[in-house]
């Protein structure tokens, strides 16, 4: 009979031998994970952004189509006017856009925020391939339905349901990605995931402008073709994502044509060496809600809410700022809205590489927020269009580059599967709150949009102060841990990333 201690030693030796063999193929294994997981998640997120913002695309494309949409769907009175009355000085296209965007945008965010916490539970229970692909497919069907809607109430109902299904995607992907990568690998992956979505945002307006030219084809209005064709694209990507997206590391060997059981075990061991939380934990409501007592969880949520005030404002209103704020034509505004997003992606990738290389997050966060603090006053207060357009570049780049940086900082400083799930949910819930604020503050005072600029500046100042406060607290905790006075996150040797 074998001695138990001998068996343990043999198992340890075998694992060490497996790790030695697989470590020579580590780059190949991680490349396969990147191609399947990051690419699949990024494609889904690109249509997520495109579909949630396409209600306003008709307004961007032209006043005639907006009026047709208002008439076709019977948008009158309280059905399209939010409690904030547009300023009389606004251009017609801005006022018309406000009518559409106010109620239907706000109602989307109500369900979007509400259904995020349960979504992070469901993705672990159901599994990412099924859960994420089903919700993508479902909101694609809703987009198709929007193209055939006959009344304002149908549009409102569809937008409410869209918030239900879209709620699970971003926090689910954040949770899934953070479970696969080491702490100082994750920002580059988050940047690819989010950067593809930024490119989609840049191209969405141009795509809508092209689709609206189909006006009259098969007797269907141009604004309806936006929803129909984007719905078809989303449904197709939902099917593709079922093949591309993989499960959590402990179950990923079952994913089609992916890693072997030995390779998955190797990934789990490398994660455990990094932070000791790769193994799944049994779900209890108490375990899921316990992180709500941790102040740093809410600190990260505040950071993300401040960021998304800026990112949603630029995503929703940039073409209008260029057209009604700076006087460019519709086509020029569509074209000029794309380069700032491309620049943002370049800044995002560059700062992600720096952050992962030096294994620091705070310097990257501070650099990016300074870009926005410089860009916003240029965009809002300078007179020349050239200078204001440079301000747009800095504002879009700073805010969007900080999104994956903030996600990475949060992922680096938390441990535990359900803590990670709850943290992802709170982060994206505040994303929705930021979206609600952005949808209100930038709809006034064209062509300067002063209320929106002041609000965005205030959000960036709050972001800056919160980052500095958390950094000082983490530094204090790390020093106490170095002196042996504190064990951080229940693991000796774990230190907060600053």
TrEMBL record:
Lineage, highest ranks first: Eukaryota, Fungi, Dikarya, Ascomycota, Pezizomycotina
Domain of life (superkingdom): Eukaryota
Membrane spanning residue stretches: 96-115, 131-149, 155-180, 192-213, 225-245, 297-318, 338-355, 362-382, 388-409, 421-442, 454-474
Protein name (Swiss-Prot/TrEMBL): Major facilitator superfamily (MFS) profile domain-containing protein
InterPro entries: MFS, MFS_dom, MFS_trans_sf
Topology within the bilayer: Multi-pass membrane protein
Alphabetical list of Pfam families matching this protein: MFS_1 (PF07690)
Protein localization: Membrane
Location, primary (coarse class): membrane
Keywords, comma-separated and alphabetical: Membrane, Transmembrane, Transmembrane helix, Transport
Organism: Penicillium cataractarum
